[in-house]
Amino acid sequence: MVEFFLISLLNGISYGLLLFMLCSGLTLIFGMMGVLNFAHASFYMLGAYFAYQISAYFGFWPALIVAPLAVGVIGALVERYGLRRVHRFGHVAELVFTFGLAFMIDEVVPLIWGRSTVDYKVPAELNGTLFTVFSSDYPMYRGFMMLVSVAILLALFLILTRTRIGLIIQAALTHPDMVEALGHDVPRVFMLVFGGGSALAALAGVIGGNAFITEPGMAASVGSIVFVVVVVGGMGSLTGAFIASIIIGLLQTFSVAMDVSLLTLLGKLGVSVPSAPLRQVAGLTISQLSPVLPYLLLVLMLIVRPRGLMGTRED
Question: How confident is the model at residue 315 (pLDDT cuts 50, 70, 90)?
Answer without folding.
Answer: very low
